[in-house]
Design a protein that fits this description.
The protein has 513 residues and is an alpha+beta fold. The chain has 19 helices and 14 strands. The chain has helices spanning 2-28, 33-49, 58-61, 84-87, 94-98, 105-113, 138-145, 153-158, 179-185, 188-196, 224-230, 260-266, 269-330, 337-359, 383-390, 392-396, 414-431, 462-467, 481-491; strands at 54-57, 200-202, 206-210, 218-223, 236-240, 249-251, 254-258, 378-380, 400-402, 410-412, 437-443, 446-453, 495-499, 503-510. A hairpin with a 3-residue loop joins strand 2 (200-202) and strand 3.
């Protein structure tokens, strides 16, 4: 008991110590003010040394407010939808259109789509709104229509700033050039960060840095490979941010992390020793508690089994005593007064014994061996004579014994084997149908005794029978017989087998040498 207490207190101490160092370590894995200042300095160094490949000026590409819609993240492609549904929509009848008081831009487009209008008005694409109600730009709808001149590469090149920024990746690559080609290669998340004006954006190919101006949205585009080469020998390195991932210092869609060499310095020798020690102590506690629980569980089962056997074995003498008490009760008027008084006391004790057998909840004292029962092997010279002695009382009640043809000596536990055989015979008498036969078979070193009756059973397998509650109002026992037999046979390395037509319970046991 003292060892358990010492181990538990040691585990608590080590757990608190480990937690203390873990908290300190976590604090050191979060960027401090000096770390952030160093990162900013390194970024400025990179911007000063590296040469940008390109410069994107969103303010010049989309110069006025009417182009703002083309930069909003509400396009149909941001939702992963398709425009096929829109183009398959039936056209509205002329009579319905003529009932309108005026035509807006969407109605003009409908007339063009349905071939009621051969040509779009001048400045159609330049006038707001730039986005159709379907969520797609009018320029992209015109491109998809396939009508002249909207499907040509020349028209697309001249109208790139009329397309929504998400639609650029859907256009032919030959029609894209310069800044628009770079935008078309950005993922939707990168485009959203670009539109929101994030200071830094990292992609699969580029590193974008926003120019520090108040009004214009301008980005310098550097090669991602140049960025990685610059930070190879530095204290910090950069990687894309994953949702839910711990980040040393997050900036936009990527994280700044410290190199492995720096992190190794954070781990102190004492923290490592305490961590390993706590793991070892916790493991020892787990092993000891597991073995203790397993042992207690085994002892519990052992005591329960012993109690079941005892209660079941008391059943027959208690039943006989009750029958004798009832017989004497019928002739109680013939007993003298003094004897009758003593008899009534004895009757009360018999019923008390019956209640104790039925409702006992205490456990019996057991030994420390690893088996549920104590096996005492002894050699008997004749199996036929042994079985005949075991069931002599049942033979007198009509049970038929069929001895083995070739009888010889056999080694077994006589007491427990007798309990198993008597249980099966009593079950056959009380729950089966006469005649009840007991057949002995000895083959090589195997003993098999079959208890056969001609009653009907609702159970097809032994497992089904053991799992079912077979104790009814008319049952003379406590419903423990087969369970006891099955467990005792397993302890003796034997087996209980159940078959039907006729109902047969067989006890198989190998000769113990």
């Amino acid at each position: 008991m003292r060892m358990y207490v010492l181990l538990i207190f040691a585990a608590i101490f080590l757990s608190f110590s480990t937690a203390y160092y873990a908290i300190n370590l976590q604090q050191k894995t979060i960027a401090s003010t000096s770390d952030i200042a160093d990162i900013q300095k390194l970024k400025k160094q990179f911007e000063g040394r590296a040469k940008p490949q390109l410069e994107i000026d969103l303010s010049s590409m989309y110069p006025s407010r009417r182009f703002a819609q083309l930069l909003q993240p509400s396009n149909v492609f941001s939702r992963g939808n398709s425009t096929k549904t829109y183009f398959s929509r039936p056209c509205v009848l002329d009579s319905e259109k003529m009932s309108k008081l005026y035509f807006d831009k969407s109605e003009t487009w409908e007339d063009f789509r349905c071939n009621r209008l051969g040509k779009l008005p001048p400045k159609f694409f330049d006038n707001p709104p730039m986005i159709h109600e379907s969520g797609v730009s009018y320029a992209y709808l015109a491109f998809l229509s396939g009508r002249d001149p909207f499907w040509t590469i020349e028209w697309v090149k001249s109208s790139l700033n009329l397309f929504h920024v998400y639609e650029l990746q859907e256009l032919p690559s030959s029609s894209l050039e310069g800044n628009f080609r770079v935008l078309s290669k950005l993922k939707k998340a990168d485009l959203e960060a670009l539109i929101k004006g994030s200071p830094y954006i990292i992609t699969e190919e580029h590193f974008l840095v926003r120019d520090r101006q108040e009004f214009n949205v301008t980005y310098k585009i550097y090669s991602k490979m140049d960025l990685e080469n610059f930070f190879k020998e530095k204290l910090y390195f950069i990687k894309p941010y994953q949702e839910g991932e711990q980040c040393f210092y997050r900036e936009g869609r990527f994280c700044w992390e410290k190199s492995a060499g720096s992190l190794a310095q954070i781990f102190m020798q004492s923290s490592i020793i305490i961590f390993i020690g706590s793991i070892i102590v916790l493991f020892l506690i787990a092993v000891i508690l597991f073995r203790k629980i397993k042992m207690q569980k085994f002892e519990e089962e052992k005591k329960k089994h012993a109690l079941r056997v005892l209660t079941h074995e008391l059943r027959t003498p208690i039943s006989n005593l009750l029958l004798q008490v009832e017989q004497i009760n019928k002739q109680s008027d013939l007993l003298p007064a003094g004897i009758l008084e003593e008899f009534l006391k004895m009757e009360g004790e018999v019923y008390r014994l019956k209640r104790l057998a039925e409702k006992s909840t205490s456990y019996l004292q057991t030994t420390d061996d690893k088996s549920l029962i104590a096996i005492n092997i002894q050699t008997v010279p004749s199996v036929n004579e042994l079985v005949r002695d075991m069931i002599d009382d049942y033979i007198q009640k009509g049970v038929v014994l069929l001895p083995a043809n070739h009888d010889h000596s056999f080694s077994l536990d006589v007491y427990w084997y007798s309990i198993c055989l008597k249980n099966l015979i009593e079950n056959a008498i009380h729950h089966g149908k006469a005649p009840v036969r007991v057949e002995i078979k000895i083959l090589d070193e195997t003993l098999s005794i079959d208890v056969i009756d001609y009653g009907f059973s609702n159970y097809k397998t032994l497992d089904e029978m053991l799992a079912s509650d077979r104790t009814g109002k008319n049952s003379t026992g406590l419903g423990l017989g087969l369970s006891i037999v099955e467990k005792i046979m397993k302890e003796m390395n034997g087996k209980l087998v159940y078959t039907t037509h006729p109902t047969t319970f067989s006890l198989f046991l190998r000769n113990k040498k």
